[in-house]
Design a protein that fits this description.
This protein is α/β, with parallel strands linked by helices and about 400 residues long. It has 16 helices and twelve strands. The protein has two domains: about 140 residues, Aspartate Aminotransferase, domain 1 (Alpha-Beta Complex); about 240 residues, Aspartate Aminotransferase, domain 2 (3-Layer(aba) Sandwich). Helices cover about 40% and strands about 15% of the residues. The structure holds pyridoxal-5'-phosphate.
């Protein structure tokens, strides 16, 4: 395979070499079922508990049974929401946002069809949560608030500390769940600090250089909740199913690696993202950064390229070995406009021309320079084929500015 420039790290990341190394013994030699009674199986149990303590330390979690391992963020989200609803049948109101990942949105929509009331709080044109609407949505019978930390499409960061505090000051019994899939290991998350009012947190290993197929869920002690996967006694009776020992070990290793160089990595990624962003804006006319002006995670750039289709850009990028995305990983490939960009009231034509680049600590400056070389050429080529661009090009500039380019 030719060398690729991988800038789709919000969809998934490569498995770090050190992570791979840490996992291999759990298939080669130490493959035992952690629930078995013989001595060798004890090593698997120890490995799981060590991994739990590494991740707990990063998140400031005090008790081992507050962190359970799952198969992915989707499972963690489903466990948190369905499990809470099932254990609290009298309270039937959820507050969430219109820009959540489908893992949250689709669960909420399904519950809405089953008689649970759901309030979907909107965002402004920068993708920031409408705080007034959020406060207004909270009720005395609200059971659960579900808000993501970082938006997977735009990288916009929601002020979780502030939102969770508002919730607890409004009604301490309301539970606060946060989908931290895009922020885990990238932004500070401490349940004894900035996330002290957050009751449940979901995350997924494959977003931070662990393999696909392992995730986690923090559940504060004392939260009433039914298990989602019912079976054996694993995970303190909170999640049945034989533990995926190797992947759990790998996820803990990935957390350790991320913690080691966190500040330096973030600074470098931020520099590269900003270089990509300003480079594209300088070289390509009629490009708008989605989420500009809002607080954004350093690794994500979502841009609307007017007068052409995002899918066309992706194919052309792919032809030169550049991997990017035209929306959420799960919705790219469908022609549905992104629900996130739609909620931000980005014009329809701009939504269709939107492309997301997401970087990782393995992204190099050379790769960014390569994208900056290829991207303007691709846009020019596609615009030559675009009837909208033809119209625009033939008009004097001041007329062009009337076209709604937000
Ligand atoms: N939540 C967010 C914000 C995501 O970005 C994703 C994946 O893209 C998920 C949940 C689902 O993660 P997983 O694929 O691990 O189930």
């Amino acid at each position: 395979m030719n060398k690729i420039v991988y800038l789709d790290n919000n969809a998934t990341t490569s498995v770090a070499e050190e992570v791979l190394e840490s996992m291999l013994p759990f298939w080669r030699d130490n493959y035992f079922n952690p629930s078995s009674m013989y001595e060798s199986a004890g090593l698997s149990r120890v490995a799981i508990e060590h991994s739990r303590s590494v991740i707990s330390e990063m998140l400031g979690i005090e008790f081992a049974d507050e962190l359970i391992f799952t198969s992915c963020a989707t499972e963690s989200v489903n466990t948190a929401i369905f499990g809470t609803i099932a254990a609290n049948p009298r309270r039937r109101h959820i507050v969430t946002t219109s820009v959540e990942h489908p893992a949250v949105l689709e669960v909420c929509k399904l519950l809405a069809g089953d008689g649970v009331e759901v309030s979907f709080v909107g965002v402004n044109e920068r993708g920031e949560l409408n705080i007034g609407e959020f406060v207004h949505a909270l009720r005395s019978d609200t059971l659960l608030v579900a808000v993501m930390h970082v938006n997977n499409e735009t990288g916009v960061v929601f002020p979780i500390e502030r939102l969770a505090r508002i919730v607890k000051e409004t009604e301490p019994s309301i539970l606060f769940f946060c989908d931290a899939t895009q922020s885990m290991t990238k932004l500070p998350i401490r349940v004894d600090g900035n996330f002290r009012d957050v009751d449940m947190i979901a995350f997924s290993g494959h977003k931070f250089h662990a393999p696909k197929g392992v995730g986690g869920l923090y559940i504060r002690r004392g939260i009433r909740r039914r298990p989602f996967l019912i079976g054996g006694h694993q995970e303190f009776g909170r999640r049945g199913g034989t533990e995926n020992v190797g992947f759990i070990v790998g996820m803990a290793k990935a957390v350790e690696l991320a913690a080691k160089n966190h500040d330096k990595d973030n600074e470098r990624i931020n520099y590269l993202r900003n270089k990509l962003e300003s480079g594209i804006v300088e070289r390509v006319p009629y490009v708008v950064v989605n989420g500009a002006g809002a607080e954004r995670i350093p690794n994500t750039l979502n841009i609307a390229v007017h007068f052409i289709e995002g899918e066309g850009i992706l194919y052309q990028l792919s032809d030169v070995g550049i991997c990017a995305s035209s929306g959420s990983a799960c919705t790219s490939g469908s022609l549905e406009p992104s629900h996130v960009l739609t909620s931000m009231k980005i014009p329809f034509t701009a939504i269709h021309g939107s492309v997301r680049f997401s970087l990782s600590r393995y992204t190099t400056e050379e790769e960014i320079d390569f994208v900056l070389e290829k991207f303007p050429i691709i846009v020019t080529k596609l615009r030559r084929l675009s009837p909208y661009w033809d119209q625009v090009k033939n008009k004097p500039r001041k007329d062009v500015s009337n076209i709604s380019v937000k």
